[in-house]
Design a protein that fits this description.
By secondary structure, this protein is α/β, with parallel strands linked by helices. The protein is built from 12 helices and 16 strands. The strands form 3 sheets. A 7-stranded mixed beta sheet has the order 4-10-9-8-7-5-6, sandwiched between helices. Strands 11, 12, 13, 15 and 16 form a 5-stranded antiparallel beta sheet that branches. Strand 11 and strand 12 form a beta hairpin. The protein starts with about 30 loop residues before the first strand and ends with a helix.
Length: about 450
């Protein structure tokens, strides 16, 4: 008989993504409400991260919980080949708020699968092998999506043989083009992208996948006109434009989708996270009419056992209905313009470690540096151990004060639930103020 070792902390049995395995000193969460999660000791933590930026409506939203319970009482699961009332209703609600000519939904269980299927559709539609993606990007961790990812999370898995071609997107704070204004950065980034397309060969490029606002790789809001320029380049060269809205879709930026800020309709659009605030795993691809028509003449050669899972779709119906009723999109816009933007810029003026503050709606980042003139990051890429001590100290300062932060390299991403109330948002900013003092202490 297999002997079992005594385990005092059940978390030790879990293999965790993105971290070195072994015992961890982290809270165990057992409950939540609104903008807070509650640990096993009953302590409340303000969730200023929306977990991995997906609890757009906070924790235990009654409308979503009720929708899941109601569906569970009727029908918990169903194979994707059957028709489902709740699946169809979720698709209707999603299509209604999507850009024009995106009339059908392929459901997945998350964002990385959505990217995989969008890329597959683009390649089947065009008969071409390559897909373009930005260097500062994250598209997921499965085969195609990790190769398309542009940031260092790709390195350990990159075989260099997946047809992924990377380019520089616009990022004025660390411009690759020496730009001085958003207008210059937009113009030069589009000229660079066109050169990449021409040098790679337009006839070899199936698609271009782009986060409408760069999320975990920097919270980079594109300058006005950039997405329109991308759309025009794709049209000119017969390239399928895939908008990655996994993190920023469903209100996070103060619009239903990030592409809405530039008035753009992509050919395919990947979504997940905010579609149902992550209550049950759900993602999908909004499929453009032209691509959909191709698959009315031939079968789509892929599938997922849990595509359009009834409980996940019920959660989406509950979430999107609540967003309409509660004015969540407008609330997210106000959160950015009236609270987070001004508050974070005020913190930048008080703390020497803050090099740049940027964001939109309910998604912001505070970039920490050793020197504001040189813009040298406070910690290097992939920092661990002593090299990462400043970010560890910052995180500890937040946790000690009852707030969950989201740190990515030398950045602090600020993304509370979109329905956070003003007093909780102010409390979060006050905790950030105190925690940034811990980061300042590491400056030379």
């Amino acid at each position: 008989m297999k002997q079992r070792r005594l385990v005092m902390n059940l978390d030790e049995l879990v293999f965790h993504p993105w971290v070195v395995q072994g015992p961890r000193d982290v809270p165990t969460f057992v409950g939540g409400s609104g903008s807070y999660v509650i640990d096993a000791n009953g302590r409340r933590y303000l969730d200023f991260s929306s977990q991995l930026v997906f609890t757009n409506l906070g924790h235990q939203h009654p409308r979503i919980v009720a929708a899941i319970k109601e569906q569970a009482d009727r029908l918990c699961t169903l194979a994707p080949g059957h028709a489902s009332d709740v699946r169809g209703e979720a698709a209707r609600l999603i299509v209604e708020v999507a850009p024009e000519r995106l009339g059908h939904v392929l459901f997945t269980t998350g964002g990385t699968e959505a990217i995989e299927h969008a890329v597959r559709m683009a390649r089947l539609y065009t008969g071409r092998p390559k897909v373009l993606a930005a260097y500062r990007s994250y598209h997921g961790s499965t085969a195609a999506s990790i190769h398309l990812t542009g940031d260092p999370r790709r390195w350990a898995s990159d075989t260099g043989a997946a047809g992924a071609v990377h380019f520089f997107g616009p990022f004025l704070y660390r411009s690759a083009f020496g730009s001085r204004t958003p207008e210059e950065e937009c113009e030069r980034a589009l000229a660079h992208l066109e050169q990449v397309i021409l040098l790679e060969g337009p006839s070899t490029i199936a698609g271009l996948v782009l986060e409408s606002v760069i999320g975990s790789s920097g919270v980079i809001v594109p300058p006005a006109g950039y997405l329109r320029g991308v759309r025009e380049l794709c049209d000119r060269h017969g390239i399928v434009y895939i908008a990655d809205e996994v993190m920023v879709g469903f209100g996070r930026t103060g619009a239903w989708f990030g592409v809405d800020h530039d008035g753009v309709a992509p050919d395919l659009m990947a979504f997940a996270k905010g579609v149902n605030s992550g209550y049950v795993p759900l993602g999908g691809v909004l499929v453009g009419d032209a691509i959909y028509e191709m698959f009315t003449r031939r079968p789509y050669p892929a599938g997922l056992t849990y595509s359009g899972h009834p409980l996940a779709c019920a959660a989406a119906v509950g979430a999107i209905s609540a967003m309409h009723e509660e004015g969540t999109v407008a609330a997210a816009a106000r959160l950015g313009t009236d609270i987070l933007g001004p508050g974070l810029r005020e913190l930048a003026g008080k703390h020497e470690s803050v090099g740049n503050v940027r964001g939109i709606g309910g998604l912001w980042t505070v970039e920490l540096v050793r020197d504001r003139l040189t813009k040298d990051p406070l910690v290097p890429i992939g920092a661990t151990g002593a090299a990462n001590a400043p970010m560890v100290a910052f995180t500890k300062a937040c946790l000690d004060r009852g707030m969950l932060p989201l740190t990515m390299g030398n950045r602090v991403n600020v993304a509370p639930p979109l329905n956070v109330n003003d007093s909780d948002a102010a409390a979060g900013l006050a905790i950030l103020d105190e925690a940034l003092a811990a980061a300042d202490a590491f400056l030379d």
